[in-house]
Amino acid sequence: MSIQFICAECGGKHAPENLLWRCPCGGLLNVDEYTISFPMDEIKKRSATMGRYLEALPFQNSSVFEQVTLGEGYTPMVPLDSNSPNIMMKMDYMMPTLSFKDRGAAVLIAKAKELGVTNIIADSSGNAGTSIAAYASRAGISCDIYVPASTSPKKLKQIKAHGANLHEIPGSREDTAAAAMEAVEKKQVFYASHVYNPYFYQGTKTYAFEIWEQLNGEVPDTIVIPVGNGTLLLGAYYGFRELLKCGNISKIPRFVAVQAEGCAPLVQAFERGEKDAEPVVNTGTAAEGIAIAAPARHRQILQAIRDTDGIIITAPEEKIEQAREELAKKGFYVEPTTAATYAGFQKYRSQYKQGNPDHGDEKIVIPLCGAGIKAN
Ligand SMILES: *Cc1c(COP(=O)(O)O)cnc(C)c1O
Ligand SMILES: [Zn+2]
User: Which ligand has the shortest distance to the CA of 9?
Assistant: First the structure.
């Protein structure tokens, strides 16, 4: 299997060995299609980790991945409560570093190691940085992580604990990204960005595979999904598309994407029917993990949501804390960003109910992306 990156703008192809993080034309890179398969007899025999989908991951052989993996993935999926058998919570906070970002980081760092990379730089609002730091350390790769100075202290502590050099940048999430990019250019270091590096999405796509397998080969009607930079949303979209292409499913679930009220560039563009989203000013939100004012993959995210016949909504800011408490009462202790996803789901349900009395049959999967213990 030889993997190529393909530019979303000019269609130019690049070997991953070039260590580019974007096309020389400035365009975003995607992983070009490669042959994948789902040999279920084999998969069923393997351990309950995302590594079980080896033939659908971008590895020639599994040896480097095996050195790096922390057994991430195949997280439990359980009903919201006993009255809601059709509303399933996918517990991605039960990951080695306590967020879904481990899916992407495991693949990205294994590929970096395979490519002989020894130093990386990444920027994050917290969880991606934690995840990249943990896997890089395990892989023996030296790591610099850039985060906004306002990031939750517990996440900062965790990043440092994994041995990364931590850079706390004053200002916005975008200022942090700019600082990281400047360092990448100046030092010519591998940019292990969960946003730009297309390998990250080769990990997050396993989210879709697991839902499909855990529902015994079915897919839900609807996937509720938080969106900041879209690493889970796009990964899930690619995953369902691959299942469709391989004939394993007959439709892709409808995506209900959720943004924070105080930072919703994609909502505005979606509602106006636009192909691209203009950056907004983050006016503040408790959902720090999705507060992305200028998501680089805005066009791809908007297109993916539309392709699933989906919608995008905002989570009411004043409902986030309450949503967090409600989930905790049901046994799920999540961080505020994840509570925002649930608040978005509640809003979706109350609006959807009005015109659709059959809503009770709607099968919905909601990810619980980040652990409560990571936040204050
Ligand atoms: C990263 C993250 C998100 C949002 O993911 P994007 O890739 O930015 O769309 C949502 N929730 C949690 C807990 C996260 O860590
Ligand atoms: Zn290009």
Answer: 2
Question: pLDDT digit string (tens) for 361-375?
Answer: 899 999 999 999 988
Contact (Cβ atoms closer than 8 angstroms) between residue 305 and residue 257: yes
In contact, 180 and 143? CB cutoff 8 Å? no
Is 376 within 8 Å of 152 (Cβ atoms)? yes
Q: What stretches of the chain adopt beta strand conformation (E)?
A: 5-7, 13-14, 29-31, 77-79, 87-90, 119-123, 142-148, 165-169, 190-191, 222-226, 254-260, 311-315, 364-367
**Residues with C-beta less than 6 Å from any ligand 1 atom:** 99, 101, 127-128, 226-233, 289-290, 292, 335, 337-338, 369-370
Q: What is the mean pLDDT of the chain?
A: 95
Type of residue found at 197: N
Whole-number pLDDT of residue 61: 81
Q: Cα of 226 to ligand 1 centre, how many Å?
A: 7
Q: How far is the CA of 6 from the centre of ligand 2 (A)?
A: 8
Residue 28 CA to ligand 2 centre (angstroms): 7
* Ligand 1 binding pocket mutation candidate from 369, 373, 374 (most atoms within 8 A of CB): 369
Ligand nearest to the CA of 25: 2
Tell how far the Cα of 369 is from the centroid of ligand 1, in angstroms. Answer: 7
CB 206 within 8 A of CB 53: yes
Structure tokens at 3: 């993997």
Instruction: Encode 108-163 in three state secondary structure.
Output: HHHHHHHCCCCEEEEECCCHHHHHHHHHHHHHCCEEEEEEECCCCHHHHHHHHHCC
Question: Which residues contact residue 161 at a Cβ distance below 8 angstroms, ignoring those fewer than 6 apart?
Answer: none
Q: Write the CB contacts of 271 (distance below 8 Å, at least 6 apart in sequence).
A: none
Q: Is 7 helix (H, G, I), strand (E, B) or coil?
A: strand
Contact 258, 226 (CB under 8 A): yes
Q: List the domains of the chain with CATH numbers.
A: 77-97+203-374 (3.40.50.1100), 101-199 (3.40.50.1100)
Q: Please write the tens of the pLDDT for every residue from 55-81.
A: 999 998 889 999 999 999 999 999 999
**Sign of the torsion angle spanned by Cα atoms 230, 37, 199, 28:** negative
Give the closest residue to 54 by CA, choosing from 249, 246, 206.
206
